[in-house]
Amino acid sequence: MKNRKKRKLDLLVLSDIHLGTYGCRAKELLNYLKTVNPKTLVLNGDIIDIWQFNKRYFPTSHLKVIKHITSLLTNGTKVYYVTGNHDEMLRKFVGLRLGTFEIVNKLVLDLNGQKAWMFHGDVFDITMKYSKWLTKLGGIGYNLLILINTLANWLSQKLGRGRISLSKKIKNSVKTAISYINKFEKVAADIAIFNNYDYVICGHIHQPQIREIKNKNGRSVMYLNSGDWIENLTSLEYKNGKWSIYSYQEDPFAQSLGNELLQKEVNLSKADYKNKELFNELVQEFKILQLSSSERQN
Questions:
Q1: Counting CB atoms within 10 angstroms of each CB, which of 191, 195, 242, 255 has the fewest?
Q2: Is the pTM of this model over 0.90?
Q3: Per DSSP, which regions of 20-161 are E strands?
Q4: Which one is predicted more confidently, 186 or 240?
Q5: What is the pLDDT of residue 286?
C-alpha cells in the first residue's frame, strides 16, 4: 500500500452498502476505509442486505469490509449500527452492546454542543410500511437492473465511453416524478426542527446531500444524507466541527489502492477457503470484544 497517513475523522457516516448483493461496490469501499481513521463510525442502515441475501453470493471483498469494521472496533473506534429496512431483522437485537459496538434504531450524538439526530429513514416511506411485499418485489427488480448496469458499464468502458448509470437515471426520474425525495427531506427536517435538533442525518434514498432546510415558520435544520455504495460511492465526514460529502470518484488516491489491496475474484468457489479463514478471524475478534465487554461490566 502506498505510503500516506490515514485521514483522522471525528465521525464517519456510511449507509446503504448492501453487502451480499451484486451491486455492492465493496472493493471500492474497502479502498476508502483503508485511507481513514474515524473516532466514531455510524453505519446508518442497509449495511448487510438481508432482503436480497443469497448464501451463494458473499464474496471475499464483502467479508473483508466486515473484517475491517471489526478491526476498527478492536482498535477503539466506537461503532453504531443503525438498522435499516434491508437489515430490519437486526431490529430484534436493538440495545445489544459488545465492546464499542452497539445496535440502535436511531441515534442522537452531541457534536461540539450541537445535537445530531441519525436514523436510516425508511420509517417515512409509506410503501415500506403498508406494501412491503410490493417494495421487496421492486427491490428485486432494482437488483436486476444493477446487474444489467454492470454489464453495460463494462461494455461502455471497453468502448472508451466511461461509466453509465441506468438504474440511477430511472430511479431519479421516478423519484422526481412523485417528488419523493423532496417530501422525504422535508418530513425529516420538520420533525428535526420540532425536536430542536441541529442536524438530521439519513440514508435510505441513495441521494448524498448537505443542505439547510427551513420550515414555514422560518426555523431551520441542516439536513444530511450519506448516499450509498451502489452507485454514488459516498459518505459523510465530520472533522473539526465541519461536515463534508466524501466521493470515491473524486479520490484518486483511494482508487489507486485497488490493484494493491484486492485481487480480482472470478467466483465464490475459488474464494471459499479465504472466506473460511476470514470468518474464523472474525469469530476470534468478536470473542475478544465479548471478553472486553464482560470485563467492563465486572
A1: 242
A2: no
A3: 36-44, 78-82, 97-98, 101-104, 106-111, 114-119
A4: 240
A5: 52
